Amino acid sequence: MFAFKKKYFLLIENTKDINLKNIKIYNKFIIIYRNNGIMENISVLKEFRKKCRLRLIEFYIANDIKLCVMLKSDGIYLSSFNKNLKASHLKNNKFKIIGSAHNFNEIIYKVKQNCTYVLFSKLFQVDYIKDSPFLNIVKFNLYMNKFNTKLIPLGGIKLSNLNKLKTVSCEGLALLSEVKKKPTKIFSRLF
Predict the structure, then answer these.
(1) What is the pLDDT of residues 131-180, one digit of tens each?
(2) Which of 43, 81, 94, 130 shows its CA 20 to 30 Å from the CA of 88?
(3) Residue 116 · residue 98 · CB < 8 Å
(4) Residue 20: which residues within 8 A CB-CB, separation 6 or more?
(5) What's the CATH number for 7-190?
């Protein structure tokens, strides 16, 4: 079965994590570059940005306004720990803002930051912390009904539970680890 959604958010930590040739459908994918302290060469990032633009893939930079402007990215991604309200003025400059949250209070803060989408984690149980709490589909759908902001599920989404996303009332889904582990299989199931 396939997981049909309007948008697919792919979080990467390195431009080598993803092969853009695997993405065959345009205007559905959003790539979020989270450098996590290890910055890639600017020329490599510019080339990657150019390839994204040619394939009509939106490209976002995590938590770095200067890099966002330098690369002329489509917008900025504000992690859940980012409480900076200065980024909200970027929306006036045609930059889009995506945020991430783990609880009710963080969602409210992301709304104050003018986030178009909020990646809400964790939908399913994750492999790296087995006893970590997760929402599951019913709780996620309840949160969807409380907010006007578009919540996107993130966390624990794998090939084995991809079909369950049909019952999640959302516009998209976000993937992190599955993009690195099984990129060809996951892309073939998304459309």
Answers:
(1) 667 766 777 777 777 777 788 888 777 777 777 777 777 888 888 776 66
(2) 43
(3) yes
(4) 51, 52, 55, 57
(5) 3.20.20.70
Q: Which residue in the block uniquely carries the two structure tokens 């019913």?
A: 138
Tell me phi and psi for residue 169, to 5 degrees: -85, 90
> Which tens digits make up the pLDDT trace of 115-132?
889 988 877 766 666 666
Going from N- to C-terminal start, the domains of the chain cover 7-190
Residues 28-57 pLDDT 10s = 889 999 877 677 889 999 999 999 999 999
Bridging pattern class, strands 117-121 and 29-33: unpaired
The stretches of the chain forming alpha helices (DSSP H) are 42-54, 65-71, 104-112, 136-146, 177-181, 183-190
99 has a pLDDT exceeding 60? yes
| Residues 191, 28 contacting (CB under 8 angstroms) | yes
Confidence (pTM): 0.84
Tokens found for residue 162: 């991809």
Q: Where are the beta strands (DSSP E) in 13-57?
A: 29-33
b or e along 62-90 (b: 16 or more beta carbons within 10 Å of the residue's beta carbon)?
bbbbebbeebebbbbbbbbebeeeebeeb
Lookup result for tokens 């459908």: 25
Close Cβ partners of 184 (under 8 Å, ≥ 6 residues apart): 22
Report pLDDT for 139.
Answer: 78
